[in-house]
Amino acid sequence: MSRCGQWERNPMVAQDRHTRPAAGPSRASKAEQELLGIVRTLAVELHPHLERTIVVDLDSDFDRDLGLDSLARSELVLRLDRAFKVRLPDQLLSDARTPADLLRAVLEARPAVPALAYGPAPVAAVLPAVAEPVKAQTLLEALDYHVRLRGERPHVNLWRGGEPEETLSYAGLDTSARRVARGLFARGHEVGDRVAIMLPTEAGFFQAFLGVLMAGGVPVPIYPPFRRSQIEDHLRRQAGILRNAAAATLITSPEIRPLGRLLYGLTEHLKRVETVGDLLGSDPISEPQPAVRETTALIQYTSGSTGDPKGVVLTHGNLLANIRAMGEAIEASSSDIFVSWLPLYHDMGLIGAWLGCLYYGAPTVIMPPLAFLADPARWLWAIHRHRATLSAAPNFAFELCLKSIRGEDIAGLDLSSLRMVVNGAEPVSPGTIARFTEKFGRFGFKPEAMAPVYGLAENAVGLAFPPVGRPPVVDRIDRDALARDGVAQPARGEGSSRLEIVACGQPIPGHEVRIVDERGRELPERREGRIEFKGPSATSGYFRNEEKTRQLFDGEWLDSGDRAYIAGGDIYITGRVKDMIIRAGRNVYPQELEEVVGALPGVRKGCVAAFASRDERTGTERLVVMAETRLTNPPAMDSLKARITEASAELLELPADEVVLVPPRTVPKTSSGKIRRSSARTLYEQGQLHGKTRSTWLQLTRLGLSGIRYRSRRIGRALLELAYAIYWWIALALIAASTWLLAMLAPRRSWRHALIGRAARTFLRVTATPLVVVEEAPIPKRRAVLVANHSSYLDSAVLSAAISGPLSFVAKSELEGQLIAGPLLKRIGTLYARRTEAAGGVEDTRAQILAATSGERIVSFPEGTLTRMPGLLSFHLGAFVVASEAEVPIVPITITGTRSILRGGQWFPRRGAIRVHIGRPIAAMGKGFDAALGLRDAARAAMLKECREPDLARERIVLETPTGP
């Protein structure tokens, strides 16, 4: 029996124990009494029906005993700040579990910063206007554009409470990101790897995100843990994302890293858990990995279930198209200043706020979400202080400002600089925007600055915006006509049947929206149906989820999953398709019922889920209402159920089929606080309700035990990889030994080359290594210089397998004296190059010219060495001098895949495929130095195009002779 249940059976005892101050020093005792009184007052305001029975002491659990959710805790911290004139740490919102935690924080807290310390003057002069990178094809090109033209321009100002803001310039961020990229490569990162980023709002997030892109990876932002009481559910959801993304690396903070290691045990693909600090310890890469419009730039996970998360795949082209279209819709420019507290793992904060400002060169001020939740006035003061012109938030944020901000908190506030505040990401309440506009209109907030919008991750972020300068438009329609007939009929007069819906604007430039019925037929104005859309921002589908991707597309149109109607060109959102309940031939919109039920005494506001559950006996849907309550007395609970049923019947003319009362923290929510109705339905149908909150240590223990399965898989995979590596080396040794012996005995050079080519192809076949050869033109049978990029020790064998006929490889002179390799290289006609002896190098070049003139096909690796990092190094001129002097063509050959199989400096082979592209022969334009340079540049350009790796050439001309394989 819970403590709450015991108190309710003996209300007289409870009345004598409303607060129980513990003995101690006078200051602490006084603070304790005052704090407990504040806690109890708030708890009674939230649950007035429990005023006589509720007991608050230092050990009361905010979740279990008092029913304080995240927003209630933020209100509590605000009240304590005001009462004790202190500034409590924002982290208390997630860390504090009992009043005892708050008391310790109060006694140790520093004095509060006066409100005007957040204002009143702008922090810096207005920056000069700059043009946006209209020709940029990728986010990295947009960054490079600003770095080259205005590298020291402030880009991000990170809010740090009463301390000076941390400013990130374009150049500084670029350098840090290049360091992160180098650090990733040093730890085994492969181009194309997904990299999860679980970081709070700090400089490291921006560095990590861009660093992953520069390393040719795909960022996967996931949100860090917020509350200890939900740590197990949180990590399991993140593990589901990591498994779906097959993320190889997780970047997190030192504080979260221990939890990151638990995730390591919950997914078999994760290979490493790193911090930004560790990655920044490397030198910056010289060039990012190449990317084009079609390159994946982000996988944005929507609020899917633990077992079936949906990762929206977005390319650089998708993101830039959305940023440009939204910018055109709101008339964005570098003269704007954006203030945001939105989470960076959410599309609205990541793309709409940060990446949009990165593109337009507009300064942005970014606050941690906790800073806003702890004191919503901070958001408004940041707008005031920076003279911000743009901002964004979901509807609940405006409601929180209305509830939490007092007049004395914002004395002197000036919001007149704002020209647009985007209201989106959740249903927009007409009442909220009206009250917000009225209250803050006294502080310069203009009605036309409020902009209700519509967007979704499947279209990057934004899909519909209202015209600039237009106040919000509210449509008043007949609820019954919409529910019965799907017609948005204007309401006549006042009354309970009138429903107010806010216009969310028109489609952004270059995008289209239509409303269709169940058969996919387009509907006329004021007829409700499904929203479908298309445009350059639209995703190509969900990552590794073919079934969900098929469901997403209707020909060239994408299904938003939302219901709406169009009137006067504006989109009016009525609800989610999956959440709509069809009962007795009527469409029931759960959010309406949830709001009414949440206002009933005894129900935790904002903690109600209404959903449909299929009745297998009748084949119809049943309307189920799940509501959180702290009541445990059976008669009181029966009375509450009756009131909920009555409220449902009054609102919808339909009573709920079943009312389920559950303890606090049972109704599942997303990271942004939205009700997860499908998850609530799953809990209901699987009978998993009324579970108790587990302690943190028990949750972590369960997670550790759950990781055994994935750790076993990882060990099994590692053993398979080890077995493959052993097999690979045994096959190489056997084939190489027999080939060496036969080649040494073969009387003709052509036989030796044929033997080596056959052996190389056999080795690739027995090690299950596919080889694809693409020829733009046939290779000359004689008199040619073949130049190839050098990615791995396998390159020479690959060329022998791919090209028939004798080849004269150019090798470093040190190999000539080797006991085993030396005799074989001599037998197949290898040419040598001395790298450290100038005179010898000239003599070797002459020997190569003579060989080319006499008809040999010379193979050279002009990079002279290889690196484990992707990229084409600078070319030595020797091979091109040989071609120009001997008047033979250069054939550029590009090898891809060998670096992944066997990297430089490593001896552990891995599975992979190899591609060899043979370019068209390039004829020398005369002799001499200039001709050699021309050949080098032409061959290098052809190879860069095919290998799609960074150009790592230094800005100097290398005159040494080439070295070999």
Topology:
Elements: H1 3-9, H2 11-16, H3 26-46, H4 70-84, E1 86-87, H5 92-95, H6 99-108, E2 110-111, H7 139-150, E3 154-160, E4 163-169, H8 170-186, E5 194-198, H9 203-214, E6 218-221, H10 231-245, E7 249-252, H11 257-264, E8 272-275, H12 276-279, E9 296-301, E10 311-315, H13 316-330, E11 338-340, H14 347-360, E12 364-366, H15 369-374, H16 377-386, E13 390-393, H17 395-404, E14 420-423, H18 430-441, E15 450-452, E16 454-455, E17 462-465, E18 474-478, H19 479-485, E19 498-502, E20 506-507, E21 512-516, E22 529-534, H20 546-552, E23 553-554, E24 557-567, E25 570-576, E26 581-583, E27 586-588, H21 590-598, E28 608-615, E29 620-628, H22 634-652, E30 658-662, H23 677-685, H24 696-745, H25 749-766, E31 771-775, E32 784-788, H26 795-802, E33 808-812, H27 821-827, E34 831-833, H28 838-853, E35 857-860, H29 878-886, E36 890-896, H30 898-901, E37 914-918, H31 929-947
Parallel strand pairs: 3-12, 5-6, 5-7, 7-8, 11-12, 11-13, 13-14, 14-15, 29-30, 31-37, 32-35, 32-36, 33-34, 33-35
Antiparallel strand pairs: 1-2, 3-4, 9-10, 16-17, 17-20, 18-19, 21-22, 22-24, 23-24, 24-25, 26-27, 28-29, 36-37
